[in-house]
Amino acid sequence: MSAPPVHTSCVVTGGARGIGRGIAERMVARGHRVVVTDVDGEGAARTAAEIGAAAGIAHDVRDPAGHAAAVAEATRHGVLTAWFNNAGVGDDGTLSELSDDAVRRLVDVNLMGVVWGMRAALEAFGEAGGDVVNTASLAGLGPVPGYSLYAATKAAIVSLTMSGDAETPRGVRVHAICPDGVKTAMLDAQTPGGLGNLLVHSGGRILTVDEVADEAVALVGSHRVIRAVPGWRGGVVRASALAPSVSARGISLFAAQGRRALKKSAGA
C-alpha cells in the first residue's frame, strides 16, 4: 500500500491584496496549501476563497503570537516549506515630518513584523527545510530622501536577510525581493507632490503586481539572497549609496523627472 501524498503549506502575510495576493495565487498554482494572512481578516478570508487557498486568517504581524497562530494553521494543511513576509506599510515623508504614530507603525510593521515572521518560520521548518522570502524595497539599497524611515526599515530587512541566510542550516534559504515602485494601493496613497513619490516615478515605468509576484516566487528553492527588480535600477541605487553626498546633489534633477512623469501619466 503506497504512502499518502505529503502536502506542503505556505504562509503569505499581507496577502489580502496587492503583491501578497499575487504571491498567494502563484503558490496555490504550484500546489501549495496556502494560508493567506492579513490585518484585514475578512479580506484575507475573501481572497483565500477566491484563489483557492487553504485558509485566510486575521493576523497583525506586530504580534509574535499571531505568527505562531499562522504556523499552527499552516501545519494543519501540510508541511510548512515557504513563508513570505510581505505585510508592510508605506508612510512617506522626511524624518522630521513623520508623526510619532507613523514612526512606530513603520518600525513595528515593516521591521519587527519581519523579525517575528522569520523567527516563527525558521523554528517551524522541519527536516525538509524551506524558504523565507522577505518583501523589502529598492529603497533599502541606498539613500531615498522623502522615504527616510521607510527606507531604513527596508535596509534593515536586507541586512537581516543576508545575515539570516548565513545563519540557517543546510536546506533553509532566506531571500529578499527589492522592487522599485509598484502599482498598488500603497503607492496610490503616497503624498502626490512628496519628494519620495517624485523619486519613485523618476525611474521609468512603474512595476506591476504580477511582475513582482513572479520574481518573489521564483526565489523559492534558489540560492539568490537579494533580488532587485528591475536589476539595472538596483545597480543605480547601490551606486548612489557609495557616494551619498554626491548623489544628493542630483536629487532635484530626479525629482523634476518624476514630476514630469506624473504629469504625463495624468494627462494620458
UniProtKB/TrEMBL annotation:
Superkingdom classification of source: Bacteria
Keyword Transmembrane helix: no
Domain Ketoreductase: 8-180
InterPro entries from the UniProt entry: KR_dom, NAD(P)-bd_dom_sf, SDR_fam
One of the Pfam families matching this protein, by short name: adh_short
GO molecular function, one term: oxidoreductase activity
Keywords: Oxidoreductase
Homology family: Belongs to the short-chain dehydrogenases/reductases (SDR) family.
This protein's name: NAD(P)-dependent dehydrogenase (Short-subunit alcohol dehydrogenase family)
